[in-house]
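Checklist before submission:
- one chain only
- standard amino acids only
- sequence pasted in full

Submission:
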Amino acid sequence: MIGINSKETSAGARAFTLMHELTHLALAVGHEEDVALRERRPEEEWERVERFAEEAASSALIPEETLAQFLQRPGVRRDAWDVPQVRELAAKFRVTPLAMATRLRAAGALSWEGYRRWKEQWDAYVASLPPWRGGFASPVEKTIGRAGRPFAQLVLEALDANRITAVEACRHLDLRFDHFEKLRSELRGGPGSGREPLDAGGRIGHPFIQHHPVRQRPRIGQRRNIRCHNLI
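Returned file contents:
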């Protein structure tokens, strides 16, 4: 089972988190991961596992053929990517800048040294952002995060066409009817409105920050890779 924080309103961050965790589940199904009590790998090995999961997730969200079309256009030289350029490209694929930079590194558009320089620029950019004081997600944000925009829109269209009742609509969306106008307004605003920037990326709690957590050594009950040398 994969759980995603309902406050994670950025579609790009949610998608990356989901694909990242699906990679770990696939490794577990293939007996490449085991429960933490049986893990004895050093920290460097865990970093390789996480690197593999990050690259797998970014590759799934950013297909090689489509990315190649963008990279063939005249523009940025290898290792010359800066934060605004990566953010702009990330917005086209609706992923976070960190996921985009990871994909560029895997595709050869960034060397490891170039990626590290870009990451330093990104960290400085994130540190310059004002503190995020968004608080808890609103009922509408929770509904969109849980059900997704397409499904929420479909329910509203069915309600407007009298194909379902208001009670059924509330049940489908797990949302009180007095929040429906706010939901309509949010959906009209599109995925880039409110607290859901298309180019989100970074860390938990800020609208520009990717919500995927930095992983540490696994605790009891978590599963991680134990034979990643065959995969990387």
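Reviewer check: The chain has a mean pLDDT of 76.
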